[in-house]
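Chapter review: from sequence to fold.
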Amino acid sequence: MRLQYTYIITFIVGILTAMPSEASIKLRMASFDVMNMEEGDAYMPWTSRSTDICIKLHKLQADIIGLQDVDSLQLSDIAQGLPEYSVADEKVASGFTHQHTNPLLYNSKVLKLVDRGTFYIADTPDVPAKSWNSNHVSSVFWSIFQHIKTGESFMVANTQWDSIDDNYRQDASILIKIQLSKMTNKTPIVMMGNFAKTSEDIFYNALRSRVFLLKDSWTNAKKVIGTSTVNNLKAPEEDTNTIIDFIFTTPEFTTRKMTIISTKSGEHFLSDHNIIVADMIM
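The token string follows.
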């Protein structure tokens, strides 16, 4: 009899082990540097890009889409073209207006926006400023979301870097880790954006250091489709083999697949960047 109980218990444990955890949450995250109108209109007017961009973003069926280098007019057009998404945009300091922002689009049927905010990549993270030889005021926009079905919460941070100065990139990485670690209280984090340089740059190891560990989804994904996140507005875009757009996560996330979606449309490109998509589990 005892032997039978042992077999039964072993069988039940085996079934439970094989079953997927109910707590696991599947999420699709996308990141896309839109290319602002000031730069983009010299190549192709925004009015000729906006509709096709919305079509491509709609097809992703992502839970969250982080946009970088987007003007207010562009964001308005994208939000109008993607009515299935709600927009979380930056809170800015009084009297200061961003030329370009890094908003997050989210599926409000799946996620609830709990909180949001902005800190600046500068000596004064609470005040807009340029530091460390930066060309412009740069920021990190963050939002805390709650998964409606499970009640689990996580943070998504979104940024765009324009400076290639080593001091800026080293100090910016350290600042981001310090700021995020202060805010999260063990909340899982996704950090996405255009970092302007590849993993060979000084920022990469600084951002991935063991203190407040951030994992690179490109190297941790079980499957990667595509080779370049930039296209230089010319074909063939895949030949550059350059990844400067990243999605980093804290260890609570497991990235199953990373995909690069070309922004080529007909004979033209919709942006000088391609879209990156991460399928992950929390």
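Two observations follow directly from the output. The chain has seven helices and 15 strands. Confidence is low (pLDDT under 50) at residues 5-21.
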